[in-house]
Amino acid sequence: MSDGRDYEIFVQNLQQAMLDSEKFSDQKTIKVERNKKIIDNFGVEREFDLYWEYELAGVVYKTIIECKDYASRVSIEKIDALIGKIRDIPDLKPVFATKTGYQSGAEQKAKHNRIDLLIVREQRDDDWIDSDGNPLVREININFCITPCPRITDFRPKVDGEWLRKNPVGEGVKLVSSGLNTEIFIEDVLGADTYSLYELASRLDAKSDGRYGDLTHAEAFEEAYLITNGLRLKLVSYEVDYWRSEPHNDLMQIDFSKELIGVIEYIHKGSSTAIFRDKIVRDWK
């Protein structure tokens, strides 16, 4: 048996999370106190591990929890001790918390004296198995396969010279675009397809035959046009040099067990609640 301080803090944190999740906590701040001292009807000072109170409809509700970090099940004598401790303090709701459970006599004695019994503990492996014996989702592993888009390093179009002689561009007109791959387009008339060099880069993946590194692709057309810098030139073919990087994998793990702070079992109710860092799951499993 330890001195119980760490266990008291553990139970305090879980109970505070439970209270903070309740709807009436939106209007009221309820603080769970440790080592609360209360004077009974005979002037005797009694100290309780945990205590909180709140007022609802003009009535003040007071709750104490005795926390016992025992290695074995709690005996009926410990319940008797709590009954004696609260006998002369009216309007007090008693609760008992331990990690390991209670002897049958202790459960019966607590039930007849309206003492709620809790098992407040850290998670176990069987918390991740539902009531039908099926495993719950405890961890998700997502493998991202990232394939960077090929990067065009050189684009060499071949323009129809005969067409160009019949359709002169005009003196002083530049055939060279700004170089932005979103400003150079290929219009494949027979293929009814128009795409920019930016879009061509993404299409080169399918033309790489599984190869990586410095690659070259060539394509010829029966009727196509290069559209750039406000011009529309008849295109015979093009060659493009590009770099294709190898894909790489990234693994993302989501471990829900790391978010589960603790579990509260309600002995007399036969239910349990799981307290995660960002949520409360009642009727756990």
Description:
The protein has 285 residues and is an alpha+beta fold. It folds into two domains: 5-131 and 256-282, 3-Layer(aba) Sandwich (Trna Endonuclease, Chain: A, domain 1), CATH 3.40.1350.10; 148-246, no CATH class. It is built from five helices and 15 strands. It has helices spanning 5-21, 76-86, 104-112, 161-166, 197-203, and strands at residues 33-39, 45-56, 59-68, 92-98, 116-121, 139-146, 151-159, 184-188, 193-196, 213-228, 231-244, 248-255, 260-266, 271-276, 280-282. Strands 1-2-3-4-5-13-14-15 form an eight-stranded mixed beta sheet, sandwiched between helices. The protein has a five-stranded antiparallel beta sheet with strand order 7-11-10-8-9. A two-stranded antiparallel ribbon has the order 6-12. The longest helix is centred in the N-terminal third of the chain and has 17 residues, at 5-21. The mean pLDDT is 91.
Helix fraction by DSSP (H/I, runs of at least 4): 10-25%
Rounded average pLDDT? 91
Q: N-to-C SSE series?
A: HEEEHEHEEEHEEHEEEEEE
> Which word captures the global form?
rod-shaped
Regarding CATH, which class of the largest domain? Answer: Alpha Beta
Largest sheet: 8 strands, mixed
Query: How do the strands of the widest beta sheet line up side by side?
Result: 1-2-3-4-5-13-14-15
Number of domains: 2
Could you name the key traits of this structure?
285 residues, alpha+beta, Trna Endonuclease, Chain: A, domain 1, 2 domains, five-stranded antiparallel β-sheet, 5 helices, 15 strands, rod-shaped
